[in-house]
Specification:
- By secondary structure, this protein is α+β, with helices and mostly antiparallel strands.
- 28% of the residues lie in helices and 25% in strands.
- It contains 6 helices and 19 strands.
- It has helices at 2-54, 57-61, 226-237, 274-280, 294-300, 305-312, and strands at residues 80-84, 97-99, 102-104, 107-109, 112-115, 121-123, 128-136, 141-147, 152-159, 161-162, 169-170, 175-178, 189-196, 199-201, 207-208, 213-214, 218-222, 284-287, 325-328.
- The strands form 6 sheets. Strands 2, 5, 7, 8, 9, 11, 13 and 14 form an 8-stranded antiparallel sheet that branches.
- A hairpin with a 4-residue loop joins β15 and β16 (213-214).
- The protein is globular.
- The protein starts with a helix and ends with a strand.
């Protein structure tokens, strides 16, 4: 009798011991399936997010995609359009603007020139997709064009090296190139453009390089007031500007329309302007040689160290590099 009870007890214990193991094996076998499903779900979710990003204002503005033309317009410029500026990164940490948007030397300068040195990191202003990576000897030099979901396209010119490829997706702040002096350039700098439907807009309307920020969460482009807003933005955030509030908060009724640029042949310094006017009309370039100093260069060209520093945005104790281009007049 005792042996029978003992046998039954042992069988019961064996059954209890086996059941959890079987259950555990079932869970273990199911785990890879669950992990695989989670991976699939994660990929699908990421794809949905990316699709939503690209089904944004840009999708309605641009009907095609090419890796050739910078300014090709696929749709007409809208009468008004709000540009989201929240996903931004300053293209460079430099705060010094050396040339404004607008008429310059008898032609339209379609961006801002920001002082950078060869090798400085240039970053994507917003997340987006790289449309063009090219070299243009008589223009942008080595340049990159990125299309962004907010509707803008940004252009980065005169770089010494491009770090991205066409059709590559990039994130805001991602390095896309290095500062340089390639193409039609008289000194190392970044030429930065912001375009909407192929039309160049003044970057100062949106970017405040002096304060390393954007003007707000968004910028409302309006055809009817754009010219006046651009003029105000240049005064606030152009060469010598110290930044300022969005032009949406400024009364534009008393702001005069920007004057139309006169032909180059008509822009001649008058006698009243004297030597200063003639100097401004004849800016030349000097290529730094081994052992040269600012004092020696100034003396050679009949100018002053202070004038060289002011014209080139440098200090008297700045280190000169062989091959560096300095402007003088």
């Amino acid at each position: 009798m005792f042996k029978s009870v003992k046998k039954v007890a042992l069988m019961a214990l064996s059954a209890l011991a086996v059941m959890p193991a079987a259950g555990q094996d079932l869970l273990a076998n199911q785990a890879p399936v669950d992990n695989k499903m989670r991976t699939v779900d994660s990929i699908q979710l990421q794809q949905l997010i990316e699709n939503e990003v690209w089904e944004s204002p840009a999708a309605n503005l641009y009907k095609d995609w090419n890796n050739v033309s910078v300014s090709r317009q696929t749709t007409a410029l809208p009468d008004s359009f709000r540009i989201d500026l929240r996903d931004f990164s300053m293209p460079t940490t430099s705060r010094q603007i050396t040339s404004n948007f607008g008429s310059r030397w008898g032609r339209q300068h379609k961006g801002l020139d920001i002082k950078v040195y060869v090798g400085d990191t240039i970053r994507a202003a917003f997340s987006g997709k790289v449309r063009i990576v090219r070299y243009e000897a008589k223009g942008y030099g080595k340049y990159v064009v990125i299309r962004h979901p907010n509707g803008l396209e940004t252009i980065y010119g005169h770089m010494s090296q491009q770090l991205v490829s066409e059709n590559q997706e990039v994130r805001s702040g991602q390095p896309i190139g290095l500062g340089g002096n390639t193409g039609r350039s008289t000194g190392s700098h970044l030429h930065f453009e912001t375009r909407l439907c192929g039309t160049a807009l003044n970057p100062a309307l949106m970017f405040d390089f002096y304060n390393q920020d954007v003007i707000g969460d968004s910028y409302l482009f309006r055809k009817s007031t754009y010219n006046k807003e651009s003029l105000v933005a240049t005064r606030l955030r152009g060469v010598g500007g110290t930044g300022g509030a969005s032009t949406e908060n400024i009364d534009l009724s008393e702001v005069p329309e920007p004057a139309k640029a006169e032909p180059v042949a008509q822009v001649q310094p008058s006698k009243r302007q004297g030597r200063q006017g003639r100097q401004q009309a004849s800016v030349r370039n000097h290529k730094v040689k081994q052992g040269e100093t600012l004092y020696a260069i100034a003396r050679k060209h009949g100018t002053t160290v202070q004038a060289l520093c002011r014209l080139n945005g440098i200090r008297q104790n700045s280190t000169l590099h062989v091959g560096q281009i300095l402007k003088y007049n």
